[in-house]
Amino acid sequence: MPRIPVDVQTLLAPSFCLTKPVEDLTLVADRAAQVQYIATKGPPVTARPRLLTPDKKAFAKRWFDIYFQKVSYTLILFGRILFIWFL
After folding, report:
1. Where are the domains of the chain?
2. Cα–Cα distance list, 70 to 74, 75, 79, 84 (Å)
3. What is the Cβ-side half-sphere exposure of residue 58, based on CA atoms within 13 angstroms?
4. Where are the transmembrane segments (predicted)?
5. Which of 3, 19, 52, 81 could cysteine-pair with 57, CB 3.0–4.6 Å?
6. pTM, whole model, 2 decimals?
7. Residue 57: what pLDDT?
8. Are the CB atoms for 12 and 36 separated by under 8 Å?
9. Rg from Cα positions in the chain
């Protein structure tokens, strides 16, 4: 049987019925009714996106504008090279 790390053991200690094998089929219904809550740190995963501050928004807009200019220039240049190559 594999060894369980100590931090996992402490996490599962309050819900000991999940870690023990089922000897009786009537206990299966009890397990299904049990609800588990895991304490987490930080915002929930389903948090709504927040707006950027005006200075961060302006910086991001400038960065994306410059980035897309470079990408579009590269694509145009690459297209011209391919066109000349296949002539």
Report:
1. 6-85
2. 6, 9, 14, 21
3. 2
4. 66-86
5. 52
6. 0.34
7. 93
8. no
9. 28
